[in-house]
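[retry 2/3] Chloramphenicol phosphotransferase CPT family protein: previous attempt timed out, resubmitting with same input.
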Amino acid sequence: MSFTTARTGQILLLNGTSSSGKSSIAEQLLLVLDRPFFHMPVDAINAMRARRRTLELDRDEQAAALARTRAGFHRAVAGMAQAGNDLVVDYVLSEQWRLLDCLTVFSGLDVVFIGVRCSEQELARREKARGDRHPGQAAAQLQQVHSYGAYDIECDTTTTNPRDCALTIEKSLDQLPTPRAFDRLRTELLRSRN
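[retry 2/3] Chloramphenicol phosphotransferase CPT family protein: success.
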């Protein structure tokens, strides 16, 4: 048996800080989108790694293991999309190399770049309520995560619930800008590095 695909999948890339509501929006998107989408959160990849062994590594080894994990995640997303699967990906582009790698690895794919914003005060409240986040982690990510330029679609979860954000995204998919934000970023950032 051989496999061929007539199309590549679409990637809805939700970028926002930790605790901004990306996963909650992704869950709602799976309920409102017309086509079957997969939710691919980076947290699922992180959960596959052996915790005990990672904690035994020194700081440099731990950083290298995390970088390999992120790079592998980018390639897993690209592979799923290249096989024709539509994806909702929630991610924190908190380091520029992550964005640059995604721009390279996702080249030729249909990426819709979606900014998930939330006020610093609300992020702090959510971190405290969750209890499984480092206090101040989201605030520390805030500036870098949204520093790359324009998005195709944006939503703000400070006062808007995940369902309404998902509905806004779903309605906006028919009115996407051309060229897309990821294509503009690829032109600006990758070509300026060469």
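[retry 2/3] Chloramphenicol phosphotransferase CPT family protein: Residues 103 and 185 are 8 Å apart (CA to CA).
[retry 2/3] clearing retry counter.
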